Amino acid sequence: MKPVPPTLSRDKLQYLMANHAFNVPNDAAVKVLLATYIDHIHSVFPIFHLRSLLETILTTPHQGCRRDLSLMVFQAIMAAAVVFVGPDVVRQLGWPTRNAARKALFERVKALYDTNYETDRQSLCQSLILMSIAKEDPEKPEDSRAWVDLAWLHLECAQSQACLRDGPGPIPPSALWRRIWWACYVQDHRLAIACKKSVVRSFTTNDSVKLKLDDFDIRCYPSLVTEALPSLSLLQRTDLQEEYTRLCLANNELYACLDSTLACDQMSLHSGPWAYPGTKSPRDRWFQTRSSGTVNQCARQLHGWVQSYAPYVMSPPQHTETTINVLSARQIELQIISASALSLLICSQLSQSAQPVEFGVHESTIKLIHAATEVTEGFLFLRRHRLLSYVSASVLQLLMPAALVHLRQCYTEVPSVRENSVSLLRQCIKVFASLEDTYSSARSSCLVLEQALDRLMAHISKTVSHGDYTTSEDGRRQHSPPCLSTDLEVDCGSENPYKGAQQLRSPSASAVFEAFLDSEDEANDTLFATPGTVDFDSGVQDSSYSSYVNLRDVEQDLLYQLTLFSG
């Protein structure tokens, strides 16, 4: 570690000691947390020259380490990694629960920041990004967002002080700074949706150069590192390192597409399943600036991204068992985010007009249901392969809008669609149940959806027991299925819109992406169907939806709205 700064006062030193800022885990625990950090965080946020970092941490004093490690960086890595470890590792660290470990390790980093222990701009930016990850929670996204704002501030200071010049070494410092900039950018946009705050930086207003493979150090690691971390096969394989890098680049460019989407003047998070609770106006200016782009332009940009990274979006993971834990999770995460972005675009398109139009509602609502199904199937894949721990809280929250689309479809008159909607809704509940030990708000989501499902089943039983009949085409009397909310109703005939092939390679993926645009119809600039009778901004439809974020605070209101669904 770097020596204690000589300018540190006695009071600050005592404060750091009281918060155990100088305590470090034992060697075995450090190696476990380092492996977890590389798997879960570095693959998305490559903010370190990893080879140099690992050599510095793993080199013993008698081996003559020539570099000094920032104590704040080390504690930030430990604090961020503990978010993703299992209960056994938490107990090995000496804490009874994950939350206790997260709080204690985070307080160590925070104490170092509060006392100005670290003065290096690069180390500060890296630590603050990791602090935002360590603090990330779907119930309190604002807490995590505050640390991203500070990271941007220090990044600006570094730019003004000309700290980003190229220099010697396998990776020029400017390349590493670009990776840090993109990490801030991605985390900023992930949390902007979560806490409904404006993004700090927009890609269109910053001259940051896009990352490329040359900005990463792709080569095998020395035996000192590979022997200490034998479970990480990517350290010995350049092909895996390159695949990690390509997924990272795809993730960055996807969030650049979302930048335009979220800044679009026609975009609204106040309608349909994306509605946030307590919203008064569908035009709240939660972004600092709005662009003049249209929903269709944003959708075309998203489609361009899908075409560029079709192997990741349109195909199931093809990785072996040794790498599925990371690469597969990252690929599924891209599919979830892109399908969620499409869902948001469709909801905004449907909410733009309240004028009844006969043509087009059928096609748009089918696409919305397909997008929700893709999101759900992605989470089911993660749960099936025990990969939910590899996904951040800001991505996990994307399941609730999809679940609410399924909930609406549970009231359709088409029996096959209703049965599949109920099945998908049950699977969403199981996913939330799998997250209860990590996020307390997941339990609230479970309770809300379980109660909604119970009300649905009770209503179906009541309808059947009361003998509500209709007459079929052959003259026979038959029970009428419940039809309480038909704004998302889709009659697909004999074709089941939910029938997906294994591991996300489903017909819905084709409907959503492969048939996304009609290239031969250049005169028609309308990507989605013309808005019709579906009006998400009026009455029960708008207020009945809620987000996963801060769900605990609006649980009673959502339960009340669900009673309106079931009469």
TrEMBL record:
Residues 35-202 form the Xylanolytic transcriptional activator regulatory domain. One of its GO terms (biological process) is DNA-templated transcription. Keywords: Nucleus. It holds the Pfam family Fungal_trans. GO terms for molecular function: DNA binding; zinc ion binding. This is Xylanolytic transcriptional activator regulatory domain-containing protein. It comes from Cladophialophora yegresii CBS 114405.
